[in-house]
Write a structure and sequence with these properties.
Elements lengths: L24 H14 L9 H12 L5 H7 E4 L2 E4 L1 H11 L2 E9 L6 E8 L6 E6 H6 L2 H4 L1 H5 L1 H17 L1 H4 L3 E2 H9 L9 E7 L5 E4 L16 H10 L1
Parallel strand pairs: 2-6
Antiparallel strand pairs: 1-2, 3-4, 4-5, 7-8
Helix pairs in contact: 1-2, 2-3, 4-8
């Protein structure tokens, strides 16, 4: 009997139209490695395991492997969808009957509107996002894209509000990348400044600041006591 073992099958099957058909976890792992080594993998995916998880996250949203890698990014350790990918996933679901997008106002009053009709819901849903909303949230100060392409960014925000409300089941709870990026770019909260409290004074009569720092109290020998108080302390000792 021969002791030789057959070489493992390294082939990956092709489906209709020549598209790769990943049928086993082994094929998925192997393909993820190919993608990573190709030099055409998005830079935020550092390992084959990350590529594999991104492909799986996309598959659960109806996206093919390479489409998933282009549509999904990782923010704070969570897979998220880019703005355009949100619309793509909703359109692929077949549940969107129609959608309308428009702008109203100008300057600081510019506002983007998105109205969508879901096939199994009787009434359409309308959501909007305005430049005043963006300024109030500090988005123009934190992200240069908001200053360069304000209309596009307003439309992304309005579309996200509409689609995430109307197609929550389709999007499966996957976060919107731009929202998390905006939160990550937000300045960290600073501790409130210390405020002198006139009611709290040290033994020299100066005002002590109220805050996290604790100042050491002076020793008794450093205190300037009246003669009567000094005699009482000596008698007590």
């Amino acid at each position: 009997m021969s002791t030789e073992t057959a070489a493992p099958n390294t082939e990956i099957a092709l489906g209709d139209g020549g598209q790769i058909a990943l049928r086993t976890i082994g094929e998925q792992v192997r393909f993820a490695g190919y993608v990573l080594k190709s030099g055409m993998c998005p830079a935020h995916f550092k390992t084959a395991e990350a590529v594999l998880v991104a492909m799986q996250a996309g598959a659960e949203l109806g996206l093919k492997p390479l489409a998933a890698l282009n549509a999904i990014c990782v923010v704070n350790g969570r897979p998220c969808l880019y703005g355009a990918a949100v619309a793509a996933v909703v359109l692929r679901s077949g549940k969107l009957e129609w959608v309308k997008e428009w702008f109203e106002g100008a300057g600081d009053d510019l506002r983007a509107f998105v109205q969508a009709k879901r096939r199994d819901v009787s009434e359409p849903l309308t959501k909007s996002f305005g430049l005043a909303d963006a300024k109030r949230a500090g988005l123009l100060d934190r992200n240069a894209v908001w200053k360069t392409y304000p209309a596009d960014m307003l439309c992304h925000k309005a579309r996200k509000r509409c689609y995430y409300s109307l197609f929550a089941d389709v999007l499966g709870g996957v976060d919107y990348a731009e929202d998390l990026e905006d939160l990550r770019a937000a300045p960290s909260a600073k501790a409130p400044p210390t405020t002198p409290d006139p009611a709290l004074k040290d033994v020299t009569g100066s005002v002590a600041a109220v805050g996290p720092e604790v100042t050491a109290l002076p020793h008794l020998e450093d205190l300037s006591l009246p003669p009567s108080a000094a005699r009482e302390l000596e008698a007590g000792a």
